[in-house]
Write a structure and sequence with these properties.
The protein is mostly beta strands. It has a single domain, classed as Jelly Rolls (Sandwich). It is 0% helix and 50% strand. The strands form 2 sheets. It has a 5-stranded antiparallel sheet with strand order 1-4-9-6-7, with no helix packed on it. Strands 2-3-10-5-8 form a 5-stranded antiparallel sheet, with no helix packed on it. The protein is globular, with a radius of gyration of 15 Å. The mean pLDDT is 93.
Length: 121
């Protein structure tokens, strides 16, 4: 995997919304920085916007760490066996192997940043 040789500067409007597998009901993301060919060596950075009632199904990542940082809206996060309300300025660090799912339980879009990186070996 070869990282980009130059800095990348883009506008959010240049990036299309996508609905990834396991995301349902208007759970959309813009992939802003992607790990792999021509991107970052390890970081995946995206902004997500979940419409009311949208969600990501329960899942875990065997070898990735994640951070969700809420910018607006509210939702219910299941992490392991706990359920917690996520609102503006809430954030969570999700270690590898921890099951998690997120539902927009609010009346407006739930907008949050997602930062993902592989576990160092």
């Amino acid at each position: 995997m070869t990282p980009a040789k130059d800095a990348v500067l883009r506008e959010l409007a240049e990036v299309l919304w996508v609905e990834s597998p396991g995301h349902h009901g208007g759970a959309l993301s813009k992939i802003l920085v992607e790990a792999g060919e021509g991107g970052s060596r390890v970081i995946d950075y995206r902004i997500s916007s979940y419409a009311p009632a949208a969600h990501v199904a329960l899942h875990d990542h065997a070898a990735k760490e994640q951070i969700y940082h809420v910018l607006s809206g509210e939702g219910l996060l299941t992490i392991g066996t706990r359920k917690v309300v996520m609102r503006r300025d809430s954030y969570v660090f999700i270690p590898p192997g921890v099951p998690h799912e997120l539902h927009n339980t609010g009346l407006a879009n739930l907008v949050f940043l997602v930062i993902t990186a592989p576990v160092a070996v």
